[in-house]
């Protein structure tokens, strides 16, 4: 999604910010795969694309659809910021859980290792001023708010699905 955001942006200053966000998250999928292996959760392609994971795929499609409907680069750059903000909430709850389960030191993606890297992205230091200088007229502002709402609605859909799965499998 970060690559897609970067590719869709044409404004040079915002494209630079998008490139930085994309570069800082490059390789995170390798941490995810490492963690899956550490947790002995390696699965095959039919399992990944099975009915169980359909809601997660739908969530991703909803996010991509929201990004593709955006009409302006000033709004497109908000998309990765929404992902970053939801990541903060994700890690706030996930890292203590992983720690209680005794996995914090052996995992990369689902642990404080990743959380600390996320908290030190350039977007929170060097690129903050670039984003603060973006001007929005009323129409662009309303479209930006609508994008944020669609994305948060999608994350709420995913959270509801995960909570439902937790209840089904009796994990608290």
- H and E order: HHHHHHHHHH
Net shape: globular
The portion of residues assigned to helices is over 70%
CA-CA gap between termini: 31 Å
Unreliable stretches (pLDDT < 50, length at least 5) are: none
Most strands sheet: none
Mean pLDDT, to the nearest integer, reads 88
Strand content: under 5%
Instruction: Write down how many β-strands occur, each being a DSSP E stretch of 2 or more residues.
Output: 0
Global structural class: mainly alpha
Task: Please report the number of helical segments.
Answer: 10
- Radius of gyration equals 17 Å
Task: Report on the architecture of this protein.
The protein has about 170 residues and is mostly helical. The chain contains ten helices and no strands. Helix 1 runs antiparallel to helix 2, helix 5 (about 55-70) runs antiparallel to helix 10 and helix 7 (about 80-100) packs parallel to helix 10. It is globular.
